[in-house]
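Why should sequence recovery work at all? Because a backbone constrains its sequence more than one might expect. Tight turns favour small or flexible residues, buried strands favour hydrophobic ones, and helices have their own preferences. The token representation captures these environments compactly. In the example below, the structure is given first.
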């Protein structure tokens, strides 16, 4: 009995000490977000409004804000590899084989980067996962590179946003720029 009490006291002390050292981080100024194709897939699945099969794709990214800053050509440098968002590199999960901008891409998980220019972006899918920003980007790990014309918007988009439209294309929006990455999914 004394042994049990002693173990309880020691474990309580260890747990309390461990919790005291654990301090929550300040909220991130670039919160994480994700988008599915088809849109709202997890909600539809929960509500039994979709077949219980994997979605076509998912993108996971952090959402920086414009905050009155000049973005492209300033915060995001032209002709430099950018992680498409903030913090960790953004990821595109393809649950099915796909054709992206006319090029075949096998299902899988990819880091998604771009090289922005004034009139077009080079979109890159890369095998180098779980990295911060584009600091460890390695061109040798590229699976896809494709140039996409950008569209200038009449409005400013405050939060960097990536979302799939009803056709499965990935819309990338921020500041006064929109880039549409065409994606067609294999039937399966």
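From this structural description, the recovered sequence reads:
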């Amino acid at each position: 009995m004394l042994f049990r009490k002693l173990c309880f006291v020691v474990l309580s002390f260890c747990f309390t000490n461990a919790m005291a050292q654990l301090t929550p981080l300040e909220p991130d100024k670039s919160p994480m977000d994700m988008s599915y194709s088809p849109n709202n897939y997890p909600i539809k699945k929960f509500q039994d409004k979709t077949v219980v099969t994997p979605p076509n794709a998912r993108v996971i990214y952090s959402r920086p804000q414009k905050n009155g800053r000049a973005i492209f050509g300033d915060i995001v440098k032209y002709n430099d590899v950018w992680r498409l968002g903030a913090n960790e590199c953004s990821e595109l999960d393809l649950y099915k084989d796909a054709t992206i901008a006319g090029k075949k891409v096998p299902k899988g998980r990819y880091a998604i980067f771009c090289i922005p220019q004034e009139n077009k972006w080079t979109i890159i899918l890369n095998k180098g996962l779980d990295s911060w920003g584009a600091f460890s980007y390695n061109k040798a790990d590229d699976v896809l590179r494709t140039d996409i014309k950008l569209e200038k918007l009449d409005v400013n988009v405050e939060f960097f946003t990536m979302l799939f439209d009803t056709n499965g294309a990935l819309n990338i929006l921020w500041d006064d720029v929109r880039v549409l990455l065409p994606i067609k999914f294999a039937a399966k």
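A few observations help interpret the result. The two ends are 62 Å apart (CA to CA).
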